[in-house]
Amino acid sequence: MHLSRVYITVGTTKFDALISSISSDSALKALEKRKCTKLVIQHGNSQPLTEEKILDIRKSHGIYIEQYKFRPNIEDIKSADLIIGHAGAGTCMDILNNRKHGLIVINDTLMDNHQLELAKQLSSENYLYYCKVTDLDAQLASLDFKALKPYEYQPENLNKFVSAINELMSH
Question: What does CATH list as the number for 5-169?
């Protein structure tokens, strides 16, 4: 499956490890093999890529980089072939509601990390994949995103999602 345009989002969090991992040579090689030509990175409070790094990625991998801290992102979501993001409920719902292929990266440095539980649940239902930041490059190289099923926006699915969120938050 070609992933010509990939959208990375950390939401409002600081997740430097995700930005670092997606801009690693091994992750970029995996994206290059999948015909990625553009990465749009919403870095939030994370450290953005330097201009030197952006130019190096373009030269070495043929991938254009666009990055920003915050802005309305609906167009980035709609135009993406793949969304890679933290496991916040908002990011997960953006992936599902826009019927996009998604790879959720767990930020295991967070205390009381409910992200893993949410990602596991959505993965078990075959809506998206998840991984640790250290496995991002390998997952990009090997996952079959066509195997994911599109989310059907129906009241019972939304109720199920809200119930799962409420249960996670009550622990």
Answer: 3.40.50.2000
